[in-house]
Specification:
It is built from six helices and four strands. By secondary structure, the chain is mostly helical. Helix 3 runs antiparallel to helix 4, helix 4 packs antiparallel against helix 5 and helix 5 runs antiparallel to helix 6. The chain is elongated.
Length: 353
Amino acid sequence: MARPQIQRDHRAVKSRRGAGVARRRPNRIHSLQRPDTRRTRLRSAGRAVFGWGGWTKLAAMATTVAAVGALWFTSQSLHATNDQYALAQRTAVTDRYAKAVEELGNSTLEMRLGGIYLLERLASDSPDDRASIFAVLSAFVRTHAPSGPGCGGADRGSAPTADVQAVLTVIGRRDTKGTEQIDLSNTCLVKADLNGANLRGARLEHADLTQAQLEGADLVGTTMGRAVLTSADLANADLTGSKLEDASLQFATLPNAALNGADLSGVDLRLARLAEARLDGADFSNADARGTFFDMPRSVNGGAMLSLDTGDPAKAQRTSMNNQWHEADFAFVMFDAATVWPAGFVPKVDTDR
């Protein structure tokens, strides 16, 4: 009787265990079938976002954009700084310019000289203002030197005043690359010291340069129509392409001067010295060459060197139209027995005059 009872108890316990498992199994199934969907979505989104492979490229792009922005900001800052510096520099130049011009009008010589040399320094420091600076300096000469030729009745034996000579010196030693226009026309520059001066392209029409020192001066392309250069020293000067029509060069010395392509038509060359001057392409038509030395002086007819016959120009001779020498034009040039022509040139005389 005992054994059956034990079996029944064992089956009851087993049955209860099975019932417990059966009761718990639906809970497991329930937990699998009904998950926390919000938490799952968050986890999935986190894995998708933080696991995205493009984050490295995006970070590199952000770094590049930041660097470009920093460069742009730096560039703008530099531009602003440069603009401020340029404005300050321009203001300083303007102030110095105004001060120099004010000193030019001062009644004392020392102040005027200070203004002249200050303008020279400004021309070097501010290339953009060179044209206006040298225009002011040229105007100073025209207004402070007597009028020429004849110097307006002033003492023609006197050299320029100290301030006028200072301006001429400043103009003459300016940079040869400068293109500024120098206008010294109708001025009295008697005995002016312009040795080696840069007067390239300058205007010197009607200027009185009697006894002026122009040795080695750069006068290329200079306009000097009707200028007075009596007894001027132009040794080794470069007058290539210059315009000297109807100018006076009486007693002037031009040894080794370059007159290539120069216009000397109607020029008064009486007793001028042009020994070894370069004359290729020069125009001497209608010039007065009585007693002019185009070559080294020499005796005439075995006797003493002849002097200028100033008594009667009718006694002089003229060349004919066709008188060329190294492309130089000697048509209708007035000459006399004292004229020394270039070596190898024999003028054709105009018999109709």
